[in-house]
Every structure is written in C-alpha cells, then in structure tokens.
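Sequence in, structure out. Go.
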Amino acid sequence: MTSEGAVLDKPRTRDAERTKAEILRAARDEFCEQGFNGARVDAIAARAKANKRLLYHYYGNKEALYSAVLLDAYLEIRGGERELSLGQYDPVEAMDRLVRFTFRHFLANPWFPRLLAVENLQNARFLKTLKDIPAINSPLVPQLSDILRRGAESGAFRKDVDPMQLYISIAGLGYFYVSNMKTLSVIFDRDLSQFALIQDREAQAVQMVLDYLRTRRS
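Output:
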C-alpha cells in the first residue's frame, strides 16, 4: 500500500512543480509587460491557466510572487556564468567567451532587461529584501580579477582595470542593444534584429572590450 501511495504521489508532485513553473513564467511576462504596479494577480492566473487560489498557495501574494520572479531571473544568469568555467582558458579567450555569453543571454532573454527596468523603477526595493543575495551575487567579479591578473602578468592586458567597472561595461554592451533595439531600429532605419547585424554587434562588443584591455595607459 505504501508503494502504491508513493506511485500515486508522483503525478501530483510533477503537476505541482509544473503548475508553479507555469505561474512563475506567467508572472514574469505580466510584470515585464505591465510593471509591478500595473500587474494583476487575476491576469497572471489567467496567463498560467491556473486557479488563483493555487497561486496564493504557492507564492503567497503579489509581492512574494514578484520576488520569486526576480530571484529566478538572477539565478538563471548566475548559473550560466558559473558554467563558463573561465579559469580554464587563457585571458583573451576567457574574456571573449564572457562578452559573448553576456550579450547572448540578453538577446535570448529579452524579458530580462525589461524586468531589470521594472526593478529599477522600484528603486531595487525587492532585490534588497531577497534572502538569497549570496546566490545572486555575480561570481564573475572574483573570476574577472583572476583573468585580469593573469592577463596583466602575461602582458596581454593593462594592469589598472577595475573588475567591477569592467563587468558593468560588458553587461551594458548587451543590455543597451537588446533593451533599445526597437527604438534604435527606427532611428537608424535598419532592422537591428537581423542576424547579420546582431553578429556584427556581438563582434564589436568583444573587440571593444579587448581593445580597452590591451590599451596601455600613457
């Protein structure tokens, strides 16, 4: 009877996890499109095709659901950063891989810049309250420090680079292009979502970072 009970519990567990994931995705879309203040729990439940009571059961309230969306977004990019294992590459290749990963993450997840914009409009008040801050702190600042040190020792990079400032610059190169793609396309009368232009922009971002790192201070 115990084994039967265990078997019967599995579908329910899978259904619960799937429902939670669907609610989280629906909430992410709603918050990105409507902002925090404009988002409605009823609309999120409708998007997820879920009972509103289940939403409250799994996530509590609108504020807690938004925090869950925010945490999930940061954990996703941080997980990708850790998987890069940049320490195994020479400094130039490591930096090339980092710039491309960051650019492609924004490109593949255009909702991420929108979510960051929503949280900045909230003055980062939800981010400040997340209990898992250590998990969302970027591992790349210490990794960048190591890459920059190795690059400086080998003569490939300059010696006066602040890893935090460099990380912000790398993120900005991808963030700005993706978050402003529509308006820039109108301004320059070119469809910046075209694959060839995206490739050009990614190559430009890599070159800009490497050229900066190779420039010696006069």
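Check: The chain is about 75% helix and 0% strand. The CA atoms of residues 82 and 200 lie 26 Å apart.
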